[in-house]
Each structure stands twice: as C-alpha cells, then as structure tokens.
Design goal:
This protein is an alpha+beta fold. It has helices spanning 40-43, 73-78, 80-97, 108-124, 141-149, and strands at 32-36, 67-72, 102-107, 129-130, 133-134, 158-161, 175-182, 187-195, 198-203, 220-225, 228-236, 246-250. The protein has a four-stranded mixed sheet with strand order 3-11-10-12. A hairpin with a 4-residue loop joins strand 7 and strand 8 (187-195). The longest helix is centred in the middle third of the chain and has 18 residues, at 80-97. 39% of the residues are buried.
Amino acid sequence: MTSTKHLLTEQPGTFANPKCYLHFLGGCCEKMTKEHLMSRKMTFPGPKPLRDYAGNPLVNPTPLAETAKILCKNHNSGLSAFDTAGTNLFNAVEAANRLENGTVEINGNDLERFMMQRLCAHTFSNVATFRGVPLGCRVPQELIREIFTQEEIARPWGLYLTIPPEYIDKPGVNMEFAPFYNLPTDQAIGCRISFGRVSLAAIFGPVSPGLPLQYYRMAGFRFWVDGAKSFEIRLHWKSGAQSDFIDLDYDRTPVTTN
C-alpha cells in the first residue's frame, strides 16, 4: 500500500512547459490538459461552495466541478494515483453512510498528496482567494516538490483529523474544500476537505493558531451501527500510523431536517 513507484521525479534538462505548474520538475509535454479543481465524483451532481477555515464564504466565480488548464498531459497523468486515493476515500465514506458493510485499504501518504494536488488546483487556477484577493501561484515551489517527489514529509506536517463545519456535518455526504494560509506570508500551506462526518486537514506549514487538529496520521476509520462495526477504512503509512482508528457511530433512526 505504500509503493512509491508512482511518485514524480525531477528530470533536469528536459522540456519545461511554463503553463504547467509542475514545470520546474521538467519532463513536461506541449499539450495542456483540463485539470478538475475537485474530482468529478466529489462534486456530482453540482458545484459546492468554497469557504475558509472559519466557515466564511470565499469569492468563487468558478464552480468546484470546473476545470483549468494548469497541468501538461504528462504531469496530469502522473498525479492520477493521488486523485484515486482521495476518490477511494470519498466512495468509502459514502458506502459507510449508506450503512453498508466492508473494508477499504488506502495509502495515507497518497491522501496527503491528494490534498496538495487539490490545493494547487485551486490556487493556480486563481479560484482560491485570501481576503477576497486571488492567491494565484502562492504555494511554495519547494513544498510542492517535497510533497510530490518524496516518500514522506516529516512530522508535524501532514494529515490530521479536524472538526467538520456545521454546514457539512449533517445527514448525507456533503463535500467541502477550504484552503489554509500562512498569514504573515499569504502563502497557501494546507487545506481542509470534508466528506460528510470525515473532515481532514493537510498542514504543510505554520497556520493560524486555534485551528482544531487531532489524530495525526490516523490508522483509519471504523463506522459502527447499533453497536456493531459495519465499515472500516484502513490507512497505510510509510512510517506506520501515528494515531489509532477513529470510531464513528451511526444509528438506524430516521433523521428529519427542516
């Protein structure tokens, strides 16, 4: 589960397409492709709102399901394994929410890379904003290189469990994306992605104090229904899990909403 054969590699002296946000690695091609700002599976049947970590709406003229030509074909293909990790987690949470039984295995380190992939998609497409101003290309280049080419980033950076915002933590699998910033530098150094009751924060640098973070690189999630385990998501890490499984309880009582 922690195979690294799909990590990106630097290719000095090869073609670097200036339109591709991974051009500094080399190995580009001329053809630019449409990169989805968020995986299509996660945005169906329509766009979702962007909000900051405090729940405040962000200026977002472009729906999450939209695309942007920010990657060449070579690098878009190279990131597909990370996108798959995120989609597999979303599918598993959906299955657990339907009270299905099962077990899913996911590469946790690839989930961190998926989070960086989504952060880059939203910043390089000028969708993510900070105080109403588009961030543009303010994800540090050295950080992008480390996340996509190294087997594992050093703690305390990486994946945490956090608290889903109120507009997400409700019946159904609602999806949300929110970027995090280093306020002194205005650089984007992390993000939160919530899949219903599962809300994950990927932190790649200093963020504002007060952000609720817990369960660093957890072993996974166990979903319980009427006192019995119904679904399990196992996360595998190169250096092993740093926190135990997270237990989430469901019941079969119908939920009514206004």
